[in-house]
Every structure is written in C-alpha cells, then in structure tokens.
Amino acid sequence: xxxxxxxxxxxxxxxxxHSLAHKKLFEEHGNEFDRIAWxxxxxxxxxxxxxxxxxxxxxxxxxxxKGYAGSWNKGMKAGPDNNIRSxxxxxxxxxxxSEETRKKMGHPGNSxxxxxxxxxxxxxxxxLKQWTDKPFTEGQRKRDKKGKFL
Length: 150
What we know:
The chain has 150 residues and is mainly α. It has helices at 15-29, 32-41, 47-62, 99-106, 117-133. Mean pLDDT is 75; it is low at 69-73.
C-alpha cells in the first residue's frame, strides 16, 4: 500500500486476490476508496456506480467534486436545471474582480498559480514529512525518508 513501484515493493495478485486485498484494507482502515475498489473488482457494482461513489467520496475527502453543488445546497446536483446561483442570484453578478484580486488569484502561492520546481519540491517535502512523522499503528509498515517500506 503506497510506496514506490520498485520490484521489491510489488506483489503479483489475481483480480480476485486484489479484490480481497482491498476488502481487508477497508475492514482494517475504513478507507471508502478501498470499499469501492473491492466492490468494483469483485463485480458487485458497475461502471456508473463506481464513478458516482468515487465522485461522492472524493467530495467528502477533498472538497466538492465537479458536477455536485456545495454545502449551501447540499445534495442538489449542479447543472442547467439548477439555477440557484446563476444569473442575478450569483453573489458576483454585475461585479468584477479588482486588479489586485486577480493578481492574488494567479499568484503561485494560491491554487490558481503555477507549479514551479521549487513549489513542487516544497510540497513533496511536506508530504514526505507527514508520512515519516506520523506514529504507526500495529499492522502498518514504517517507511524511510524516500517513502520506501522499511
């Protein structure tokens, strides 16, 4: 689980074994993506449900997925039939962002900015630090500074 694609970090599994591995991971850690993978690989759910469940879970974990409305109208699907914030109902209706605001939105420190090599390395180091500084529970394997299993 995780780590690099080095041959010593990989094991070969059949589809059935892969499915059962995700089931076991779901039961041990409660990761909803493992449950979805288990159900998908075992053939218990189809493509449409896989896409839907993954989008919903991504929204829970990382923020609202594309195509789904935010918390201000939770549960309503966004689209042409949903005019809650379109036209005059939109808080930005008739307004324009100032030059200063547009510069801030495009600044590399914000999500609208560009991933420079320095910014990418800083994010990488932060992610590695989070992985190596966390206490491990029984059953989890420790990793070295490069993310490889020890």
